[in-house]
Every structure is written in C-alpha cells, then in structure tokens.
C-alpha cells in the first residue's frame, strides 16, 4: 500500500498497476464464448466494476471469453447483456476456476 491508503484506494488512484499477461489472454481467447459457446474472438475485460478511470482496463485476470457479437452487445448495453447472460463477475469466477482446473493458474 502507498501512503497509508487502502488497497482499493491505491488501485483506483493508479498506484497499483493492473496485471498484464499475454499468455493468459491467449488462453482466454481459446475458450468458447461464455454467452453462446461459439469461438471467442478476444478476451473481454469486464467493465463497470468501479476501479480505474476513463480509458483504463482492469487486470487481465478479470477477462472473459466472448465472440464478437456478444462483445459488441455487452459494450452496447451492460445491463441488458447481464440480464440475458449473467453478471460479468460470475463469468470471471468461472473463467478463473477453469484456469485453475486447466493448470493455467496455480494456487
């Protein structure tokens, strides 16, 4: 922590940098889309989580696999997308569990 700030305050102010892992992003991209099961076009970094600022991305560990159609629809309306497909956080949790199961992440 920096200057007596909490971890969350340090993260929001940019003192703690997000985790970046090209290998993890490639692995997420190899998974099926979590909304429809088609091939994922790219990992989606979840949005509307309350950390960071304009133009920032959360850590790569908070990425979920989405096809282009569902990635675009999520960015178009987060609330509607989550109503139809579940909360982004739920998909992050499932993706992380799969990563541990597949040996991509070790505990």
Topology readout:
Blueprint: H1 7-12, H2 22-30, E1 42-45, E2 63-66, H3 68-76, H4 78-85, H5 88-102
Antiparallel strand pairs: 1-2
Helix pairs in contact: 3-4
Helix-strand pattern: HHEEHHH
The total count of strands amounts to: 2
Mean pLDDT: 87
The main sheet comes to: 2 strands, antiparallel
Shape category = globular
Q: Could you estimate the helical fraction of the residues in percent?
A: 40-55%
Give the percentage of residues in beta strands: 5-15%
Query: How large is the radius of gyration?
Result: 15 Å
**Count of runs of 4 or more consecutive helical residues:** 5
Name the strands of the widest sheet in spatial order.
1-2
The SS-based structural class is mainly alpha
Q: How many domains, as an integer? A: 1
Spatial separation of the terminal alpha carbons:
23 Å
Parts with pLDDT < 50 across at least 5 consecutive residues: none
Structure described in brief:
This protein is mainly alpha-helical. It has helices spanning 7-12, 22-30, 68-76, 78-85, 88-102, and strands at residues 42-45, 63-66.
Describe this structure in words.
By secondary structure, the protein is mostly helical. It has one domain. Helix content is 44%, strand content 7%. The protein has helices at 7-12, 22-30, 68-76, 78-85, 88-102, and strands at 42-45, 63-66. A two-stranded antiparallel sheet has the order 1-2. The radius of gyration is 15 Å and the shape is globular.
């Amino acid at each position: 922590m920096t200057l007596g700030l909490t971890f969350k305050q340090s993260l929001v102010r940019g003192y703690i940098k997000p985790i970046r892992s090209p290998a993890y992003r490639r692995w997420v991209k190899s998974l099926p889309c979590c909304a429809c099961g088609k091939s994922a076009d790219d990992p989606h970094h979840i949005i509307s989580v309350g950390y960071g600022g304009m133009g920032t991305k959360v850590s790569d560990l908070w990425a979920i696999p989405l096809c282009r159609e569902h990635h675009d629809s999520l960015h178009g309306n987060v609330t509607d997308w989550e109503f139809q497909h579940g909360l982004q956080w739920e998909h992050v949790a499932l993706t992380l569990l799969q990563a541990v199961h597949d040996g991509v992440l070790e505990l």
